[in-house]
Amino acid sequence: IDLMNNRACDMSGSQVLNNLPANWNIASIMPAIKVFLRQSNQERKETQISKALHKGNNFNLKSEYLAITSEPIHIQPNHYCIHCKKGFAGSRVSRYPNGVMLHEHCVVNKKICPLTGQIFELSV
Q1: Cα 29 from chain centre
Q2: Max CA pair span of the chain
């Protein structure tokens, strides 16, 4: 009992309470139970904070993704595909986040810019 009350912070509360004999007096281990409850509440609060931070990060990533994908592409007559060196007249265009434009069929890897070699990783 003394070990449990003095070293409760080093023990797993659920395991200790599950292994207690049924005839033990709860009042004798009340200090340990208080520590177990305090630890449980702290873990729950930390989990809630972590979850809220992840939600906020996810929201920021979605906003960034929307900002990148919703910008219009303005194609001038003198613009051309950096891969095949042909103009964009009447064809579908793909654009990397850094502004590099290619024909849709010229895109080899959507995550790596063919001009700069920049890697784009956006998990939404």
Answers
A1: 41
A2: 88
33 pLDDT band, cuts 50/70/90, is confident
Please give the Cα distance from 53 to 47 (Å, whole number): 10
Distance CA(49)–CA(118), nearest Å, equals 34
β-strand partners of 119: 112
Q: Which class for 85: exposed (0-12), middle (13-18), buried (19 or more C-beta within 10 A)?
A: exposed
The pLDDT tens digits of the residues spanning 87-98 come to 888 778 888 888
The whole-model pTM stands at 0.51
- Select from 96, 95, 94 the least CA-distant residue to 120: 96
**117 — alpha (psi -120 to 50), left (phi > 0) or beta?**
left
